[in-house]
């Protein structure tokens, strides 16, 4: 019997911010025969959750522009991390009813034989499946790997975390507090500021209402800056840096949607890097995977299960909402880890 297999396709390279329904296209023209579709030694997955992440904007580009992640292909489904449940399997290591985490196309059902690209999730961890896309998934790993590898944190130091209410920033704040640091954190709404205070930020502020430069002047100097924003925020952090401060360059979202109306901004005070002996370190989560994955899974999911790491989720119901969710993450309108609930179990 044919069952709908709706997809979300990459439709057009955006200029500036992505435009829902223009950059992407919801397509429900395809069907799949769930009982009889050939598996060729692989497995059939019903996709339950798909993650929406800031870096997806970088993949919405012309193939001629080089970057660290491959471009999406016009007319093909978007792709990202997801969680699904196995419906049928010909692979002895992956059984019907198992939940798997890995990369999926944005569609409802998927057949693959690439078992090594997926991790079977533990059933006994008392963690909702969606959280394997956030605190127990890529964004939690980004925070844990980057902090462990590069923060060189010492008790009593001061760290500034921008985008502190987001899925990466909120884990960074909680790791820093556990190590006894003073945390200054910024976000773009009063609701996000309240959340940052609730997870331990000592100084939490709304950068749309207060000047980042003034808050850092008053509460700094900072020994560590965890950057998600770049641009003027990075400039303010350089001004507030103590000698030998570490700058962990995790993201620069203020520069992802630049256009003629929203031009790029480069910090004007880079000479301070020399005088203050600053260490600016860019990093990506994927190259650190091999080194820190086992330690991460042994550490963070048990803390999440015990409520020791808190998080927010922003769940969109149905694949049709994908374009809007992508836009909202770029525009700062999401409140927590942005996730598409593709289907109920
Ligand atoms: N290096 C890596 O491997 C890696 C991996 C994952 C994520 N990242 C980066 O980490 C950062 C956070 O990711 P996330 O998943 O935790 O994102 P997120 O918080 O879910 O969403 C992005 C947030 O960025 C903020 N923002 C958007 N436009 C902004 C602007 N012009 N100026 C300042 N803030 C702006 C918004 O929060 P506010 O309301 O607070 O402005 C928005 O909610 C992103 O820059 C992302 O690219 C890097």
UniProtKB/TrEMBL annotation:
Residues 27-340 form the Enoyl reductase (ER) domain. Keywords: Oxidoreductase. One of its GO terms (molecular function) is oxidoreductase activity, acting on the CH-CH group of donors, NAD or NADP as acceptor. This is NAD-P-binding protein. It comes from Rickenella mellea.
């Amino acid at each position: 019997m044919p069952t709908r297999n709706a997809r979300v396709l990459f439709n057009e390279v955006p200029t500036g911010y992505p435009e829902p329904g223009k950059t992407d296209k919801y397509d429900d023209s395809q069907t799949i025969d769930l009982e009889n579709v050939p598996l060729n030694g692989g497995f059939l997955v019903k996709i339950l959750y798909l993650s929406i992440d800031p870096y997806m904007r970088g993949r919405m580009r012309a193939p001629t522009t080089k970057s660290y992640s491959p471009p999406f292909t016009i007319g093909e489904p978007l792709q990202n991390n997801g969680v699904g449940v196995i419906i049928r399997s010909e692979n002895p290591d992956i059984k019907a009813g198992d939940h798997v985490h890995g990369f999926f196309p944005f569609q409802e059902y998927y057949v693959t034989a690439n078992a090594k690209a997926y991790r079977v999730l533990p059933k006994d961890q008392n963690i909702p499946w969606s959280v394997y896309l956030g605190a127990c998934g890529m964004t939690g790993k980004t925070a844990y790997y980057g902090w462990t590898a590069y923060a060189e944190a010492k008790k009593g130091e001061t760290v500034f975390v921008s985008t502190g209410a987001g899925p990466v920033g909120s884990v960074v704040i909680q790791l820093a507090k556990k190590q006894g640091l003073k945390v200054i954190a910024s976000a773009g709404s009063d609701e996000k500021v309240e959340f940052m205070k609730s997870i331990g930020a000592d100084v939490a502020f709304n950068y749309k209402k207060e000047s980042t430069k003034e808050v850092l002047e008053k509460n700094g100097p900072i020994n560590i800056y965890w950057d998600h924003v770049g641009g003027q925020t990075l400039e303010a952090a350089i001004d507030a840096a103590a000698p030998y401060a570490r700058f962990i360059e995790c993201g620069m979202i203020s520069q992802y949607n630049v256009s003629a109306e929203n031009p790029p901004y480069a910090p004007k005070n880079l000479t301070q890097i020399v005088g203050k002996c600053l260490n600016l370190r860019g990093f990506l989560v994927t190259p650190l995977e091999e080194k820190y994955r086992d330690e991460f899974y042994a550490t963070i999911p048990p803390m999440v299960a015990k409520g020791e790491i808190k998080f927010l989720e922003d769940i969109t119901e149905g694949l049709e909402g994908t374009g809007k969710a992508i836009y909202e993450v770029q525009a700062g309108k999401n409140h927590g880890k942005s996730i598409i609930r593709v289907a109920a179990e």
